[in-house]
Amino acid sequence: MKLNKIKEMSSPELEKELGELKTELFKLKFSLASHSLDNPMKIRDVKKDIARINTILTERKIAEKKGVNNGTN
Fold it and tell me: Do 18 and 54 contact (CB within 8 A), yes or no?
């Protein structure tokens, strides 16, 4: 998943996508353990997508918190 696409998504959409990616990662790890995974590099790609989404969500939370703090001062 591209970073631009992730940034365009809303926070609830990102939360939903994050859940789907975690489920996919679980299935990929299970397939790897049972030796039926065709492309082991897919695990790396899914992990990176999860990290990207977590980064964007964290950035948004920090920006929101800063906006709230600046508004009260």
Answer: yes
Q: Which stretches of 1-73 are assigned E, i.e. beta strand?
A: none
| Domain of residue 19, CATH code | 1.10.287
| b/e code 2-26 from CB counts within 10 Å (16+ = b) | eeeebeeeeeeebeebbeebeeebe
DSSP assigned state of 38: S
Tokens matching residue 70: 């600046």
**Distance from C-alpha of 25 to C-alpha of 38, rounded to nearest angstrom:** 14
Number of domains the chain contains? 1
Confidence (pTM):
0.86
Query: Is residue 48 included in any domain, yes or no?
Result: yes
The pLDDT value given to residue 71: 63
